[in-house]
């Protein structure tokens, strides 16, 4: 026994050291909460200069963290921008682009297009590092491939452990929606009727073949025809996209079809808080992807009429309130100091979103252009806020060029992992910049695409000149001229007769002309020829790294009716499994006004 005591003691010490080491490694991994707004303009937030829309919770997040003032999306529309955010790669590399002037986003839920399964997302990387991963909110990266329930492009196939949200995106049909209580009740009775007729058909057919009953085949065929005609009539009565694209899912189950859009945001916040509580011991990744502030701007009655900017302003203020609820939950669960929180938008505000004279899209501040414009700054410059108490100094403004693509390598870094080594990753780790270990962005060049077409190139020289050169090779033709937007077509085009090609390219120095108002010339800029040549060389080198891939948003972006998701047995697809919220998530308007009074 005496001889064995040192061995036992040594074993216990080793076990304790291993436990401590494991605990220390776990402590080094922060929880991560990523919050992405939809179509939010950089000029819509108080912390970015807006003094008429109240965003106190996002403004507080900015004060407590680092604010990125040259934060850039890799695309100016939803699907390609989000694919770049998820993978750290330009959409042209993954194929999340189109050719010509085809639809530049995943068109609807009946198309087989989607983020290719061979792409690696930040969720997949963190899952390998022991993270619990969840996505709540908008997806818009595809859903099905071969059948209406194969869910090949479901978030579960990209590293997420939990999903609740809208697999598509908001469209005008989603809100305001008619009351569906009577429709759902009628459909359930109609479906029961069809089932009874089908049972009768099967019974009569079996009886006739067995010689038990004597009924004419005409009667049986007539009953079968009746079933098909009834189903077709029901399907034909639901031509609105409301019934086929405006739906919510929990995991693989459709919970609302069509969804009640005005309550969706509240349910998603409730889901987010539940996720935080469920995985509070960490480490976890929560990607909260807002439906706000995309048209048609579904807003609860508590916020309608509260802002100075109509329905759009109301929707922004409701979104800010929801951000506050998530931040409060992080504090309540004691996660504040161990959680990296990031807030952004997928691209710039939608200038052309209007109803009559009412503006329904965002404001992009001093920057020219907006959503759908791949080159102009207003389409791609977005808010960027990062908070990690004790790790990232609070109250700093970082003017260096950063990108949504930087999130993947940054999360790989803080989680102890590494980005994929078998492909080009266009993002850069932000932590050295955020922590003040380097002065300049690791991006020297950034390439701005409109779908598959290169529109502009940004050059940030690695010196102390402060210059930010930007060369535009293609720009959209505004409709009407000088309007700053494409109000005739609703979105600007990337290619063809509705764009202008520039040779030599238009050149701006954003450090002196952030609004891109006056192109430089050889007469006004001594370095003009040097910059044009340098940018052209970088562009050529970049294009040599682009490998041919299938464009997901071209031929694959055509609807196949058999891929349409259905809550029941097609075409009887209406359902509401959420019911009314048991307790309202949002406080009344006067309480919100008290919080924001004086902001």
Automatic annotation (TrEMBL):
Keywords: Calcium, Hydrolase, Membrane, Metal-binding, Signal, Transmembrane, Transmembrane helix. GO terms for molecular function: arylsulfatase activity; metal ion binding. Pfam families: Sulfatase, Sulfatase_C. The chain crosses the membrane at residues 189-207, 214-235. PROSITE patterns: SULFATASE_1, SULFATASE_2. Residues 30-415 form the Sulfatase N-terminal domain. It comes from the Eukaryota. This is Arylsulfatase F isoform X3. It comes from Sapajus apella. The lineage of its organism: Eukaryota, Metazoa, Chordata, Craniata, Vertebrata. The gene is ARSF.
């Amino acid at each position: 026994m005496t001889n064995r005591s040192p061995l036992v003691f040594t074993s216990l010490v080793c076990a304790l050291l291993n436990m401590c080491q494991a605990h220390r490694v776990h402590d080094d991994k922060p929880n991560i909460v990523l919050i992405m707004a939809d179509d939010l303009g950089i000029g819509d937030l108080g912390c970015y200069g807006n003094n008429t829309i109240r965003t106190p919770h996002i403004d507080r997040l900015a004060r407590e963290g680092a604010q990125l003032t040259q934060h850039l999306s890799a695309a100016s529309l939803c699907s390609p921008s989000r694919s770049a955010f998820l993978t750290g790669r330009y959409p042209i590399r993954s194929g999340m682009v189109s050719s010509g002037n085809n639809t530049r986003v995943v068109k609807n839920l009946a198309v087989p297009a989607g983020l290719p399964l061979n792409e690696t997302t930040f969720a997949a990387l963190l899952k390998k590092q022991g993270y619990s991963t969840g996505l709540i909110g908008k997806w818009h990266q595809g859903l099905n491939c071969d059948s209406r329930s194969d869910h090949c492009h479901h978030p579960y196939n990209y590293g997420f452990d939990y999903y609740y949200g809208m697999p598509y995106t908001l469209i005008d049909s989603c809100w305001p929606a008619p009351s569906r209580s009577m429709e759902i009740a009628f459909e359930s009775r109609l479906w029961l009727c069809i089932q009874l007729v089908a049972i009768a058909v099967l019974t009569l057919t079996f009886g006739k073949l067995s010689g038990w009953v004597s009924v004419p085949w005409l009667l049986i065929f007539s009953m079968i025809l009746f079933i098909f005609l009834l189903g077709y009539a029901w399907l034909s009565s639901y031509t609105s996209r409301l019934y086929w694209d405006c739906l919510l899912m929990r995991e693989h189950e459709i919970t609302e079809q069509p969804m009640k859009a005005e309550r969706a945001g509240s349910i998603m916040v409730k889901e987010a808080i539940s996720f935080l509580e469920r995985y509070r011991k960490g480490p976890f990744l929560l990607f909260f992807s807002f439906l706000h502030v995309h048209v048609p701007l579904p807003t609860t009655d508590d916020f309608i009429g509260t802002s100075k900017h109509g329905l759009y302003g109301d929707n922004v203020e409701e979104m800010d309130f929801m951000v506050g609820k998530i931040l409060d939950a992080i504090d309540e669960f004691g996660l504040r100091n161990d959680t990296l929180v990031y807030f952004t938008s997928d691209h710039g505000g939608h200038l052309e979103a209007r109803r009559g004279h009412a503006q329904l899209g965002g404001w992009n501040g001093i920057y020219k252009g907006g959503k759908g414009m791949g080159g102009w700054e207003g389409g791609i410059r977005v808010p960027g806020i990062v908070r990690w108490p004790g790790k990232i100094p609070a109250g700093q403004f970082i003017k260096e060029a950063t990108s949504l693509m930087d999130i993947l390598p940054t999360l790989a870094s803080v989680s102890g992992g590494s980005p994929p080594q078998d492909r080009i990753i266009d993002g850069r780790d932000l932590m050295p910049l955020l922590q003040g270990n380097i002065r300049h962005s690791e991006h020297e060049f950034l390439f701005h695409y409109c779908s598959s077409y290169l529109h502009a190139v940004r050059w940030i020289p690695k010196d102390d000149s402060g210059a930010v050169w930007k060369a535009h090779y293609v720009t959209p033709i505004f409709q009407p001229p000088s309007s700053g937007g494409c109000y005739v077509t609703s979105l600007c085009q990337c290619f063809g007769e509705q764009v202008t090609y520039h040779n030599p390219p238009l050149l701006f120095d954003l450090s002196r002309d952030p609004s891109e108002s006056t192109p430089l010339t050889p007469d006004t800029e001594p370095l003009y020829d040097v910059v044009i040549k340098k940018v052209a060389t970088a562009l050529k080198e970049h294009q040599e790294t682009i490998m041919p891939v299938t464009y997901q948003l071209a031929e694959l972006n055509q609807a196949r009716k058999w891929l349409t998701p259905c809550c029941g047995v097609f075409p009887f697809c209406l359902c509401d499994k959420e019911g009314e919220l048991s307790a309202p998530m949002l406080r009344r308007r006067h309480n919100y006004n008290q919080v924001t009074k004086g902001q």
